[in-house]
């Protein structure tokens, strides 16, 4: 669920024949920030559904614990979703294997350590460790990141199916640069790049070093990334640390 608002048909009604389950996921997908509370009219607008339909679906989701209702009437994501999501093997299983190594990197670097898996043409962040003094970044557990423009996305894209890579490259502003980064990941097992910081506060650019976590067949189980303010210096130590950690996680995952 990316949280992107859905285009509402001119009639203001849901698409004819759209299954109720799809409408329910459109309602759940309206939430884009951790702890966010949404009024019914906002929920309906983001989901692209009539207010009456949204009200009915939100009530049903509240009954089963997928949503909760605050005293002011706003809706928030319910704990039942967290309980179910924690069982996802691609996220939870990999996280369990990766966490000890992520904690080591976190202690040594004092920066952001990210773990993500690929879901279609996006990366989903399944864990993030951040030091108190680290520069602010706009990443959250459960959030989605593009495969182009992020180090962790590039690491995943390098081992994605050819169709996914082709589509991603077709939409890249600098496809030649992306191809070079993908080649580096496939040959060296790690890539380093500088990306703009989307937040107005803090450094204007961030350095990201990322490595894929591969199984025995060479498929990407996920990717690991270190994100820190770009200081223009050599990244040799970070590259070596990320590469070693990704290999250790691959062995620990045992897949």
From TrEMBL:
PROSITE patterns recorded for this chain?
A: HTH_ICLR, ICLR_ED
Domain HTH iclR-type, by residue range, is 18-79
Q: Which domain of life is it from?
A: Bacteria
Q: Which UniProt keywords apply?
A: DNA-binding, Transcription, Transcription regulation
* Chain ranges of the IclR-ED domain: 80-255
Alphabetized InterPro entries for the sequence: GAF-like_dom_sf, HTH_MetabolicPath_Reg, Tscrpt_reg_IclR_C, Tscrpt_reg_IclR_N, WH-like_DNA-bd_sf, WH_DNA-bd_sf
Q: What is this protein called?
A: IclR family transcriptional regulator
């Amino acid at each position: 669920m990316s949280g992107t608002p859905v285009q509402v048909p001119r009639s203001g009604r849901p698409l004819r024949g759209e299954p109720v389950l799809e409408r329910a996921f459109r309602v759940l997908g309206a939430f884009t920030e951790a702890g966010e509370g949404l009024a019914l009219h906002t929920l309906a607008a983001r989901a692209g559904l009539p207010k009456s339909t949204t009200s009915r679906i939100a009530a049903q989701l509240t009954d089963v614990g997928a949503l909760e209702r605050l005293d002011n009437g706003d809706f928030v994501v319910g704990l039942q979703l967290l309980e179910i999501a924690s069982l996802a093997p691609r996220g939870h299983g990999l996280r369990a294997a990766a966490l000890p190594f992520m904690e080591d990197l976190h202690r040594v670097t004092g920066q952001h350590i990210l773990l993500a898996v690929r879901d279609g043409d996006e990366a989903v962040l399944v864990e993030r460790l951040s030091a108190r003094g680290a520069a602010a970044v706009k990443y959250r557990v459960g959030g989605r990141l593009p495969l182009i423009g992020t180090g962790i996305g590039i690491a995943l894209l390098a081992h994605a199916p050819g169709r996914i890579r082709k589509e991603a490259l077709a939409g890249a502003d600098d496809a030649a640069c992306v191809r070079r980064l993908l080649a580096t990941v496939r040959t060296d097992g790690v890539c380093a790049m500088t990306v703009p910081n989307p937040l107005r506060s803090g450094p204007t650019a961030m350095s990201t070093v990322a490595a894929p976590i591969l199984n025995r067949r060479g498929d990407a189980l996920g990717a690991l990334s270190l994100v820190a303010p770009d200081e223009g210096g050599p990244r040799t130590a970070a590259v070596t640390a990320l590469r070693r950690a990704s290999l250790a996680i691959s062995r620990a995952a045992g897949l």
